[in-house]
Specification:
alpha/beta, binds phosphoenolpyruvate
Length: 255
């Protein structure tokens, strides 16, 4: 397994935090802190209302802007939803799909995750697809099966040539926003299952080239150890992405 073949990606997920004004301030601070840090790609996935401010504040820097979700239809009577074309036309390059909070609180299913993945990739967006087991599934010893199933359904019908725009984030649900981080070994194992599943679907070369992030209470203190694992190619970071210095320290750990 050659980690050097893969691009490390450190991505923030702001969730329902930050106003446009705060967005401008945080990105203004962050862009100075990450100047010259070329060892990883840097992405901030922000609430829809903050996208224009984020795109403006990040212009000319290494920071790329992502959204936190996307609808699968191109347009129409879907009140409150945002299409892939709306995102790309606003300057968005990445989108998170299938975050566990969407699955848990907003009725997202593996089938709708699959539709969103395809709509986003077809529109030219880079997708950060989230998969992960809940604690009961881990305790039952079915983490591997859950990760394989979520990955297979999410990628159903996705052609191999679109994998260059795909990142998968392994996010054990019990580690998200809880402060209870997976051990580096658990993260490596989960990411390894995701990679193995992609190998089953698309072959070894595609699997070796895929960036697989770990997400779940990653912070400036534990990032280096997690990112040091062979299957961990980056991080999806919630809480610690809301503080420029903490997020920049994780970017440092990925250099
Ligand atoms: C997330 O929202 O994807 C996440 C990993 O959150 P946190 O870092 O706060 O656990």
């Amino acid at each position: 397994m050659n980690k050097k073949k893969r691009r490390a990606v450190i991505a923030g997920n702001w969730k329902m935090n930050m106003t446009p004004e705060k967005t401008t301030a945080l990105i203004g601070e962050l862009r100075e802190l990450v100047k010259g840090k070329r060892g990883c790609d840097i992405v901030l996935c922000v609430p829809a209302i903050d996208i224009p401010a984020a795109v403006k504040a990040a212009k000319g820097s290494r920071i790329r802007i992502g959204a936190e979700n996307v609808h699968f239809e191109e347009k129409g009577a879907f009140t409150g939803e945002i299409s892939a074309e709306m995102l790309t036309s606003a300057g968005v390059e990445y989108v998170i799909v299938g975050h566990s909070e969407r699955r848990q609180y907003f009725g997202e299913t593996d089938a709708t995750v699959n539709k969103r993945v395809k709509a986003a990739l077809n529109a030219g967006l880079k997708v950060i697809l989230c998969v992960g087991e809940v604690l009961e599934q881990r305790d039952l010893g079915i983490t591997g099966e859950v990760l394989a199933m979520q990955t297979k359904i999410a990628l159903h019908g996705v052609p191999e040539e679109q994998l260059k725009n795909l990142i998968i984030a392994y996010e054990p649900v019990w580690a998200i926003g809880t402060g209870r981080v997976a051990t580096p070994e658990q993260a490596d194992e989960g990411n390894g299952v995701v990679r193995k599943t992609v190998e089953e679907l698309y072959g070894k070369k595609a699997a070796e080239a895929l960036t697989v992030q770990y997400g779940g209470s990653m912070n400036e203190k534990n990032a280096a150890e997690l990112l040091g694992k062979v299957n961990v190619d980056g991080g999806l970071i919630g809480g610690a992405s809301l503080v420029a210095s903490k997020f920049a320290a994780i970017v440092d750990a990925a250099q």
